[in-house]
Design brief:
Length: about 475
Amino acid sequence: MILLKDILYKVPLQSVLGSTQVSIASLQFDSRNVALNDVFIALKGSAVDGHEYIDQATKNGALVIVCESLPKKIINGVTYVEVTDSHQSLALLSANYFDHPSKKISLVGITGTNGKTTVASLLFQLFQQLGHSVGLISTVAIKINDQTYPSTHTTPNSIDIQHYLQKMVESGVAYCFMEVSSHGIHQKRIEGLEFSGGIFTNLSHDHLDYHDTFKAYRDVKKSFFDQLPKSAFALSNADDKNGKVMLQNTAAKKTYYALKSIADYKGQILENQFSGMLLKVNHQEVWSRLIGTFNAYNILAVYAASQLLHCNALEVLQILSVLRPVDGRFEYIVSNDNITAVIDYAHTPDALKNVLTTINQLRTGNETLITVIGCGGNRDVQKRPIMAHIAATLSNKVILTSDNPRNEDPQKIINEMEAGINPVDYKKSVSILDREQAIKTACQFASKNDIILIAGKGHETYQEIEGVRHDFDDLKIVTQLLKRT
C-alpha cells in the first residue's frame, strides 16, 4: 500500500486540498488511462494542456489531482495537489513511487547530438559479455538482459523510466546505460534519477525547432552534467569544441577522450575499411567491426567508460573486437554483383556528413555514390537545405524523398531541401516523393561496385504519414530490390 504523503517527498508544493493519507493505485498523465484511485498529473505540453482533462480524470476515478493551477470545480473526496512544475513533479513522484531504483544500480547517461544510441548499445553489449546483468534504455529498444521492450522515445517519460529501472533492480541488473536526449532533460524526465556517470559524445545542429537557438540546445545538454553528483564521473569528447564547456560546472570527476587532443583516453585510427577498423587505444591495438571516424570516437567513449567503471582493460579490448554494430547505424549489405547499400539513421547535418565522409574515405573513387535522403516533417526546418547541400556535395547522385513527413506536405519538405543544392549540383539530383520508389530508382541507377546510402530512418520499421504509421523498412526494401540486380 502506497500513501500519497509518501510520494510527495521533495515535490515543490504550492498548496494541498484534501488528505495526503489516502492510498493510491498508480500514476497517470493521460486522462484516458486513469482508473480508480489513480493519481492524475496534469502536464502543460506544446500542443495539449493536461489541465483541460482534470474533469475527465476524476470521472474515470482519479483520487488525486496534481496540477499547476487548481480547477474551478473541486470535488469532495478528491485530493488536489498544487505544484510549481508538473513535469518536475511527475519525475519526483515517479522516483518516490518506485522507491528510487536508480540508487540501487550504476546508471550511466549518454548525451550528445550523434552517437548516443551506439555508445549506449555497445556498453550494453560489452557489459553483458563481461558477465554482468545489464539494462539499456535507448532509441532502438529498452532491454533487461535478454528481454527486449519496444522504445517510442529516445528518453521515455518519467513513469516508464522508473518502471523499467525497477524491473531491472528486480532482475538483479548491476549497470544500466541510458540515452539522455535534450527533450528529456528540458522536460525534466530525468529529475529524481541518480546517475553514476555521464558521457558527452558531440554537439551539432539539431532540434532547433524545439530549442530555438544552438546556445539553448547546448545549455540544456550541459545542465545534465551540472546536476551530476560528486560521486559520479563525467566523460567528455575533448575534440568537440563544446566538450570542455559541458563539464565546466560539474561536481563529478572530469575525464576526457579524444583522437586529436590531449586526453585521458587517446585513440588513433590505423586502418579503416568496409570490413572494419584497426584502432590504437591508449597504446593498445584493437580491431572493430565498426568503421569511420565517428565510430572511433564511440568506441573510445565505450572503452573510457568501462575503465571508469573499473573493468579489466585487456578483457575490454578483447571484447570490443567482437561487438556488433547497432541496427540502422552504418548497416550495409552487398549484392551478388557487388553493389553496396548502406542504411544509416543519419538525420542531422553532422551525422550525414560523417557517414558520407566515411564512405568517400573507403571507396576507390571509381564507384558511383548514390544518396537517398529526406527530412522528417514537423521538425527542425533549418536543417533541410543544409542536409540536401551536404548530400549533393559529397555524392555523385542524390535522390531527395520523403522521411516520416508526419503532418506536413512531403512535397513542401522536398522543396525546402532543394533550396540548399548549389546550381552546379542540379544535374546530379532528382526528387521522388515516394520513398520506396526513390530506393528503387537508386538501385536502378547503380552498377557493379557502386555504393548506395539510404539515410535518415536507419532502424525504423515504419513511415509516419498524417499521424498514421505504415510498415516501412529501408533495409528490407533495398535487400529485396538488390536481389534482382
